[in-house]
Prior knowledge:
By secondary structure, the protein is of the alpha+beta class. It has one domain (3-154): Alpha-D-Glucose-1,6-Bisphosphate, Chain A, domain 4 (2-Layer Sandwich), CATH 3.30.530.20. The chain is globular and about 40 Å long. It has 4 helices and 9 strands.
Amino acid sequence: xxxxxxxxxxxxxxxxxxxxxxxxxxxxxxxxxxxxxxxxxxxxxxxxxxxxxxxxxxxxxxxxxxxxxxxxxxxxxxxxxxxxxxxxxxxxxxxxxxxxxxxxxxxxxxxxxxxxxxxxxxxxxxxxxxxxxxxxxxxxxxxxxxxxxxxxxxxxxxxxx
Length: 161
């Protein structure tokens, strides 16, 4: 299993490479279907809870991270471009329950590439933040640990259904 998490602070960019021992179609579904995303996206003991999901270019996944003590952190992922089983470009950030963007300085653009490598699928993610300050804030919030935990949960989901 390949796992890299590279912080390019100067350019406000995170680079994540993760290989999964699963077919491309299964990995794609886990990234694009709300009922599967909810099973791995949030680092335990948190849970991702979908309010709405429209996986089309121009659509949005509007959800919140539910904490163990009843906390709700609302988030959105706007789908800017979709190339089936190859590429997703999103804008990701914090919002309120109505979907209004909050903390716009922390919004990021994600480019997610899905690459079939024999029996494995490589997911290559480039997350672009506005600047070094925004990226540092996201890193201090635990992005690396939380997202790595989520990807580990995805690995488990793909292996055990």
